[in-house]
Amino acid sequence: MRFGFPFFFLSPRLAKNATLIFFGVMLVTAFLLFVLWRTENPRLQAARASLMDAAAPTIEALAGGGNAIGALFDDLESYADLQSENARLRRELRRMSGWRDAAHRFEEENARLRALNNAKLPPQLSFVTADVIGASGGPYQRSVVVNIGRDDGVADGAPAMDEAGLVGRVVGAGEEASRVLLLTDATSRAPVLIGEARVRALLQGDNSDRPNLQALLDPEAISVGDRVITSGDGGVFPSGLLVGRVASLDGRAPRVALASDYRRLLFVKVRYAARDTQTPQPGLILRPSAPQTGAN
Amino acid sequence: MRLMTPRIGPLAYLTPILVGGVAALIGLVPVGLRFADWPAPNLLFVVLALWCARREEALPRVTVFLLVLTYEALRAGPIGLETLILLAATEALRVAAENRARRAFWLEWLLFAAAALAVELCIWAALTVTFAPSPTLSDMALRALAAILA
User: Would you call A45 an interface residue with chain B, using a CB distance cutoff of 8 Å?
Assistant: First the structure.
């Protein structure tokens, strides 16, 4: 063992002893930190969130370069199929326009019916959009870091979605950055409903791209292609959020193809609940229409 | 008689910190999401092992401790465990480096491969023994292989 920095100003014998003691202190400190992590010490988690807040601007700056590299790969992939991709997107846009009109009609009818029954609305769900600025950095967890935190109204446990469906939930909210646990992580659990029969199950991640379904109450009632949505059980996620579709029924447990594509996850919408509202008038329930974009 | 480390300039101490910092940040950038199916090497360990093998006097143990601990704190997963194991691994590589002049390059590479494999195995074992959520042994082996190839 060489003895040097930071004890090079001592005599060799003293430097040797100081180095050994210092090395022992570092080992013990690392071990104690591991024990604190394993016992889920809240102070350690808070300190970690603070460090994440401090490093978020640097990681975000690097993420811009990383996303550019990723976009380059995407461009190379899609360049080969440019024409067919274009046609597919146009068809999808036309179909989406039709669904938007249908959604407005349903919303109006829903508001009328609720007002007739003097129904109390569930809490209005609002969301704040964030960029994905960091990944989990290792094989231990499937998660991403986003550039919003408690200052933006985000709290631990808040669900995160993208334009396709549910992505995961917030597991560590700092002041300005938060960590979102993906549905594919081995510790992720989400109560879901499957298909028209609304079969209850538990979506469990296993670090693969397709989480499996556990605790299926009626396995015979589901089939490949069935829509999977959150059930709202246990308050883990709000009900009705799209998760994906049943991909396979082979093996020990059925697997779900997630609606969200994690490989191209550039931003997420973190949802949080406002206070409950009554329904004084149907017109107040209707949300303002989204602004028209140039594509429309 | 144990050797005292020769005095070197401050830039020599800063270089492994900067390179190690970049290696750690590369792992945190979300471009890894696109290649989630591929095993990601532990670049920080590769950098630390390189310095231990070639310029171990420029890599004090406190640098290893702070670099790895900061990396663990920023990324998801256990904190303190990899610091503990990498401190031991780099110490073993330092001892091995003292005899470097008498060893062929392929043997040195084999030594690094053994260290990389041992690191991943120890991490997996520690997580399994403490009933913590852990990646599969095959994932950790692939990660070690990626580090060896890197």
Answer: no
* φ, ψ at A243 (rounded to 5°): -105, -50
Q: What is the pTM of this model?
A: 0.72
Cα gap A283→A273, rounded to integer Å: 21
CB A111 within 8 A of CB A282: yes
Best of B38, B52, B61, B130 to disrupt the A interface (most A CBs within 10 Å) is B61
Handedness of CA B47, B49, B53, B57 (dihedral sign): positive
Rounded CA separation A249/B23 (Å): 41
List, for residues A155-201, the tens digit of each pLDDT value: 888 999 988 889 999 998 888 899 999 999 988 999 999 998 899 99
For chain B, the domains span 10-149
- Is B108 in CB contact (< 8 Å) with chain A? no
Domain B10-149 has CATH 3.40.720: no
Tokens 């107040």 appear where?
Answer: A284
Residue B115, token pair as written in the block: 């260290």
Tokens 């006097």 appear where?
A: B57
Instruction: Compute φ and ψ for A32, nearest 5 degrees.
Output: -65, -40
- Find tokens 């143990």 and name the residue: B61
